[in-house]
Amino acid sequence: DMHVMQGIQVLNLSGNDLESVPPFVYSLPNLQELHLQNNCLMGIEVSRLEDIDGLGHVNLQNNPISDDLKSQLQSCKFTVLLGNDAVS
Q: Rounded to whole angstroms, how far apart are CA atoms 49 and 47?
């Protein structure tokens, strides 16, 4: 039920072998922390994540993120964890 999910502030989808971010994630207006570590993510819709106003932290550790995506993430308004480094 999307109405119930609207209040989610922290979402942990780590360790699920995800290849992409589930579309419902981009529709969570109160999301503050998103944990996506230990998946198979290669691409992420960065601009859609930036549209989530309160999002402050995204953990993408242990995903096969491309160098191009890493450079896009460096200019985001939220903090991103990649490997052992945080970029913001």
A: 5
Per DSSP bridges, beta strands 33-35 and 10-12 are parallel
Residue 73 CB coordination number (10 Å):
21
C-alpha neighbours within 13 Å on the C-beta side of residue 12: 1
Regions in the chain scoring below 70 on pLDDT: 1-2, 84-88
Give 57-81 pLDDT, tens digit per residue. 999 999 999 889 989 998 899 999 9
Enter the tokens of residue 70.
């890493």
Enter the pTM of the model: 0.89
Q: Which residues, in sequence order, are CB contacts of 43 under 8 Å at separation 6+? A: 20, 66, 69
CB 34 within 8 A of CB 11: yes
